[in-house]
User: Fold this.
Amino acid sequence: MIKKTIALTLAALVGLSVLSGCKNDEEDNGSGTSGKKGVTISVVTSFGGDDGNRQNYEKAYQAFEKATGNKVSDNSQTSNETWKSQVMADFQTGAEPDVLFYFNGVDSNKLIQDKKVVSIDEIREVYPDYADNMKDDWMGASPVDGKNYSVPVNGFWELLFVNKKVLSDCGVDIPGADYTWEQFLKDCETIKQKGYTPIAASLFEVPHYWFEYTVFNHGNPENHLEVPSSATDAIGKKWQAGMEDIKTLFSKGFFPSNTLTAKDADTFQLFADGKAAFAIDGSWKLGWFTGTDNQAGNVDNIDDFTICFVPGSGERKATDIIGGISMGYYITRKAWDDPNKQKACVDFVEAMTTDEVVSAFGVTNVTALKNGTIVPDDVDSMTKRAIDLMQELTATVPAVQDQLTETARKALFADIQNVVSGKMTAQQAIASALDKNK
Amino acid sequence: MGRSNQRKRFSAGKLLIYLITSFWALTTLYPFIWVLLNSFKERRFIRSNSFSLPLGEAFTLDNYKVTFERFDIFPAYRNSIIISVSVMAVVIILAGLAAYALARYRFPGKSIIQALILASMMFPVFSTIIPVFRMMYNWGIANTESVALSLLSVILPQIAGNLSFAIIVLRGFIQSLPIDLEEAAYLEGCNIFGIFFRVILPLARPSFATVAIFSFLWSYNDLFTQLFFLRRKEAYSITLLLNEVNSQAGVNYGLLAAAVVLVVVPVVIVYIFLQKNIIKGMTAGAVKG
Amino acid sequence: MDNDSMIFKKKGPLLVFLLPALAFMALFLYYPFIMNIVNSFYQITGLGNSPEQLNQPWYANYQRLFEDPYMATALKNTLILMITTIVFQVGIALILALLIDNIKKGVQFFRTVYFFPIVISATALGLLFNLIFLYDTGMVNQIIQSIKPGSELIDWYDENHFLFTMLLPVMWQYVGFYFVIIATGLNNISPEIYEAARVDGTSGFQRVWYITLPLLRNVLCTCLTLAITGALKVFDLPWVMFGAGMPLNKSWLTGTYMYDITFGYADVDYGSAIAIVIVVLGVVISMLANRIFRERDI
Assistant:
């Protein structure tokens, strides 16, 4: 039996190598005639398997293929650390794609420093209409030189998700545009007395949202993006104060009792199950409630939930929110310098960032579109509410944590559990993170 | 002591044996049953009551329907089988040869080679994967358009990764075989390769089957290497699909359970098939011994 | 141990036997690992980046290993895991294999079933155990509630319980692995030896102690090596269940810590240094163990 298996496998291997030989030949033929008949461009994006926009993405690029006769060789994956390291390794080894959908913050610094991607200005010298449906100031300029390199699709917001049923059972009003931190603390106390968990969050896994807003509450939209140069300067003090606020919430027992050992999915489930009242999360979470084309939402009745502004304090109004645009389409230098591919890449990015496509990717999101997104008529209550909130904004500021390097950010958030449990002071945590911010 | 008395005591011991072994079997079988049952349940019933039977309104086939609709299961099976069977076959041949040499020959540098093999068992794949990627990219194997080459780019490092384990296990086994048969074959005029294929291979069959199972299994379940090298949708393996379902499903445990069942089934089949070889090896050994 | 038989006097065929496997390993394991050793002396700030400059001092990462409290935690936990692995995993596997060796009916069934936990991927098992140990309210807490209604829920992942919650699934999963290896070894012991022993009137325990165990020595030594190296590498199940050192950086293992440093913090050079610790420790400990237990030449 084993011999047979081995023989079969060897046969398969031989077949495989022959097959791969054929494949290469075909490819060579393809590129030989590609000048006229359409080319194949390789694309890497984060619209991989689990992304809520996977289907929209596929629809959009298939439409592009149909319209232009070009082929898209899609290598999209889910965005995570492995993916990021893959993308970077690709550039390192010269295996980069033609078009890349990637982060526009510090994560992409290396690409810009090494001149691996082409700036919008340079593209516009040849294609003046490139990305002309976008506001230039909103495209997400590179921290390296302040120039635009990527064309964004949809941005994000971070807001307070509210379980209406829990609030009404506790006699707490649904927060409005003037919601204050003091009132929030009072409400949490009331909710806790009623036996509910006030705030659903895993401080072990995702303290990010609470850090961002508590720090924001000790500053204002103008200085929110500043990174401290030491843990004890003015900005450092601001960060300390924010982290102390989280510690206060923790010691008052407003987080789930196992917030230091639970996963985010578990704590968010508390919220969905009507055991917790509040949770801060991003625009990407909306689909979790509403569902997508081929998947139902995760809650029985979406009308039991809604979205509100995060309580404000000091100079920050509740309507000043964390949001912005963090990713976009890059054209790589390698593809730009290839006369066969240049136009196809430009066409591709334009096709993927039309008003229609951007709207399909998310109507409620912060957007760089000059005309705004196109809102369909029949939206659910939660999406409707998000769209309404977007009209009331007084300021939209990107997340300051994205100004930190990956390493520093991770170190900072890994230490939040130590700060709230008293194993470390906020100052120590910030100092240790800044130490890694190189 | 009467004969019947002895038999009675004997069966009491047997009963105890069956009790203990069955208890362990229960703990190992239950998770699979749990997954199987929950794959037929609607999502909302899983979290609240994951340890009940999928009856009445809880029962659904939707999880499987959705999995098949949304994911290309069959090409993924094909890719997985190509990868894992190739890895398994190459590993047992190469490891068998090397293990035989290490078990029987005496030569300078042997202990160094053995220490190296042992050491390589511990190389974390996370520390070797990036140099390997660069190397294979330079060879034109990794990160190409071709599905076949993508599969090959997973097969090669996986073979290397499974060799050390296979060599260590096979060497231990071959060493414990009596040498008389080899000597007899030698006297009959067999050369060393003849001895390996005609004497050692059949004798060590159970051990080869064991190694084959593990190579197959580890190759099949090795998410990290596959994640790194298989990027094209057409080259996706079934384990990558599970990973994708996992990230897509979130708390949709029903969908996840269905995917797990679909992933596990081929491995169980391979195991049961190779398991027969272990049994056959046993009876063969008994006759010869 | 080595053989002095005539057959193996000619060394020519050695090349054919050894070269293919060694070539594979050289290319895909040793070469990258040598790169890894080199990397541990350099500063590397990103995955996929090439080494930038020598560390100051060049052994900085090795110095850091000794000062890093999480590394100490990881080593301690891994050592605990290693000991429990040897005692419980190999121990239970040996007992089960010996028991199964004594019965005729259902052998095939048990062999298949014991193997199941290894077949199911870590993602799925992690999910299952997370539901079993779920705080509000998984299987274990449900059972406790039904026995003692109104008692506090137990957080199985907190500082008092995490070691148990982490070790149990790992132990349980790999018993089947050692079972298969030991059972294969048992098959190779010819029944005549047992028959002879039975005629001599030895009891079951005596037979196991004086005949089976000595004959299994090689196989058990293999298991020992595998258990030691395995413990140093354990990654997926603890990672799925505990992630980055939960609770409060207490549950690190060498495998999970190395992964987090390399892929989480992109601290490639320090990660490389940890990888070297893993390998060196594994080789040293398993050589020691083998020196103690390995069969002397008969």
